[in-house]
């Protein structure tokens, strides 16, 4: 290996490792109530907001590590109702069809380790550009009680290795019952991180950040809407 290439690797590899470490930490924290949220009840009541701004970090060669995290308090649905939406893969497309994104799902198999699901995520970008991203993932249910619900959706490594659109996808769907000022509310949080191929988008990083925030906020709204019928 030439000295210049070796030097670039020494510089670039720790930066990438840092990105992965931060991503794993954020994903773990997403299965909880974001710090300071309860103090913002009036601001977040039935009005989804970002936990932090969407981030698209360049990985090189038109690939970006995209991270989005949104939450809300609701006094209109229970944890059980929200959990029913999280686990309703038969009606996934019906429940998650919005103006900014669509998520469809087909169950492949179910077992003691979780449920294998084929997802197709479609993002509707500016100028009507539709970015279709199919991937296979393992869905694991961590909690499902009256007080808490939590599932993790992780793309299979084998799918990630061959996928030309999305890699390393991991999502957390979380809900928790909380009492604030003597009244019960349901806290809902949706977190997604993945590597995205932005080659068809001009100025891809900025577009991914500007579009993914509104899309995940819309998804949280759709969760509440679907939960009302459960």
Topology of this structure?
Elements: H1 3-29, H2 41-44, E1 49-60, E2 63-74, H3 79-86, H4 92-95, E3 101-111, E4 114-124, E5 130-144, E6 148-155, H5 157-162, E7 166-180, E8 183-197, H6 204-227
Question: Keywords, please?
Answer:
230 residues; 43% strand; 8 strands; eight-stranded antiparallel β-sheet; disordered N terminus; Alpha-D-Glucose-1,6-Bisphosphate, Chain A, domain 4; alpha+beta; single chain
Q: Say how many strands there are.
A: 8
Estimated radius of gyration: 18 Å
Shape: globular
SSE pattern, N- to C-terminal? HHEEHHEEEEHEEH
CATH topology, by name, is Alpha-D-Glucose-1,6-Bisphosphate, Chain A, domain 4
Give the helix proportion (percent range). Answer: 25-40%
The percentage of residues in β strands lies in 35-45%
**How many separate domains?**
1
Please state the structural category: alpha+beta
**Largest β sheet strand count, sense and barrel closure:** 8 strands, antiparallel
**Which regions contain 5 or more consecutive residues with pLDDT less than 50?**
1-24
Any guess at the CATH architecture?
A: 2-Layer Sandwich
Report the average pLDDT across residues: 88
> What is the highest CATH level, the class?
Alpha Beta
Q: Please give the count of helices.
A: 6
* N→C terminal distance: 60 Å
């Amino acid at each position: 290996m030439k000295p210049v290439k070796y030097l670039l690797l020494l510089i670039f590899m720790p930066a990438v490792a840092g990105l992965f470490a931060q991503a794993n930490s954020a994903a773990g924290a997403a299965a909880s109530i974001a710090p300071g949220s309860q103090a913002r009840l009036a601001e977040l009541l039935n009005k989804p907001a970002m936990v932090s701004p969407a981030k698209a970090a360049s990985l090189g060669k038109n690939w970006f590590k995209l991270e989005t995290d949104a939450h809300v308090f609701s006094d209109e649905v229970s944890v059980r109702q929200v959990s029913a939406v999280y686990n309703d893969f038969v009606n996934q497309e019906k429940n998650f069809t919005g103006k900014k994104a669509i998520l469809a799902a087909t169950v492949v198999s179910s077992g003691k380790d979780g449920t294998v699901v084929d997802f197709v995520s479609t993002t509707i970008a500016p100028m009507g550009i539709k970015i279709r991203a199919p991937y296979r993932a393992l869905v694991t249910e961590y909690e499902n009680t009256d007080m808490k619900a939590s599932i993790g959706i992780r793309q299979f490594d084998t799918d990630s290795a061959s996928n030309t659109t999305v890699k390393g996808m991991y999502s957390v769907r979380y809900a928790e019952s909380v009492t604030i000022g003597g009244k019960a509310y349901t806290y809902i949080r949706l977190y997604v991180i993945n590597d995205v191929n932005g080659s068809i988008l001009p100025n891809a990083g900025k577009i991914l950040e500007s579009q993914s925030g509104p899309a995940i906020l819309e998804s949280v709204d759709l969760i509440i809407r679907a939960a009302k019928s459960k």
